[in-house]
Amino acid sequence: MSSPVHVHFHTIVKIDRRKEDPVYLQIVYQFINAVKRHLLEDGDLLPGSRKIASDLQVHRKTVVAAINELHEQGWVKVLPNIGTFVQNPEQTASQGVKDAFRQPPERAPFHFRKELILDTPHLEVPENYYFTDGTPDYRIIEADELVRFYASMIKRKRKTDQLPETAEGNLFFRDQLSYYLNLTRGFHISRNFLLPIVSREQIFSILTRLLIRMGDIVIIEDLSYFLPNMIFSQAGARLKTVPVDAEGMDIDYIAAHFSPGEIRCVYVNTKCQYPTTAALSEKRKVQLLQLAEHYQFIVIEDDADFETAPIRGKAESLFRKNGGARVLYIGSFGHFFAPGFQMNFLIAPKDLLEEGKKYLNIFGKPNFMLEKTLGEIIHQGDIFRYQRKFQKIVAERKERFAQLLHAYFKQELTFEPPVSGLAFWIRFNRSFSLMRLQQQAKKRGLLLPGVCLYQNKTVTALRLGFAHLDEQDMPEAVRLLYEAYVHVIMESPI
Description:
Blueprint: H1 23-36, H2 49-56, H3 60-73, E1 76-79, E2 83-86, H4 89-94, E3 129-130, H5 143-155, E4 165-166, E5 169-170, H6 171-185, E6 194-197, H7 200-211, E7 217-221, H8 226-234, E8 238-242, E9 244-245, E10 248-249, H9 251-257, E11 263-268, H10 282-295, E12 298-303, H11 318-322, E13 327-333, E14 343-347, H12 350-357, H13 360-363, H14 368-379, H15 382-409, E15 413-414, E16 423-428, H16 434-443, E17 446-447, E18 453-455, E19 460-465, H17 473-491
Parallel strand pairs: 3-17, 7-8, 7-11, 11-12, 12-13
Antiparallel strand pairs: 1-2, 4-5, 6-14, 9-10, 13-14, 15-16, 16-19, 18-19
GO molecular function, one term: transaminase activity
Pfam families: Aminotran_1_2, GntR
Organism: Sphingobacterium thalpophilum
């Protein structure tokens, strides 16, 4: 009979009683990790449960519970009256043992459809410091506080819980959201014209199913947001670009280059054009609405950046001007919350929403408890407190970011702090390779994602998010960017 393995379990299993995980599960997780790291080998005989318990200074029943769990998962083999042996199911599978689990092949042995259109430029692993194309700092509104709202909705019984839950979500949330939008955005809508949907991508997918047929022309801005563009293209739309300047989309260009009845949709972000952050001027808003009526096209207004704008910077939306006759309005709620607590929504004619609801089943049913939680945050007025806190910090970081860019780059670049949104549009005053800049930044521990880079014959620009960087990270990120820029310029001076 073999002897038990000579391993002091306290060296491979560290019990932390401050963790929420039960002690026996901590033992399980770390035991599995030890097997994967070959600190324990397949076939090793384990000491008795009393000895392991003494070594770890836990109750023997805790060790027995851990061994039972490991046995259920296949990481130990228990032979009655003989002992408990280490068993590595991953290693067993790789040796081709009969009935062992096998991983799928790297390349499928059958044909499937591939969509190059849907490839995205996102990078997965950030460096020590990183820029984004404009994301919030989710630490500003602590997730623990949102979780407490969620937990209270589960524990507490309220009259609002008795409101019916429908295919498009519970009525309490839709009532609260319509009240909030009417109050903050000057709308006059009821819940019947409002469809909450978890993600913007789902909204675009539903709209393309409802509106786009193969070959339909969709007008987008010359430089524009890649995600809806991909979804429109994948649906068979022909994307036509329109120039953008300081006043936003050039509406005169549309009138000069297209005929009535030729355009199906115009997609536009009126407050903060992606990526340039330009706002559509009031004059051009009127022009676009008039042209929509004359040319008989639909305007899809993306107002995802509304919550990032200061109160005095909230210009009137196309939807409010038009009343929804030609405008479909896409918005976000709780954009500054942790991702699991965010919501998006579509405002449109009632019959279009009724058809759109049918597609929600494709994406999974709404999270009713999440919607009730968000409704309660509005109902109790906390949303206004969260928004004031978020906007105050964003305003401070925006000002600090502009100061740092001026201090480091001086006359090397041109930018205007955005009124809305969480990113700066930065144009360099000389031409150079942004790919080289990205490489040099990476060498210095700064991630500059491809989604932030914009370069053609006339433009060398970056869209740089600032709101996720706190007072410690922001100066360092800008300094590293400047060092990478200097290296590239000195390497290949113009």
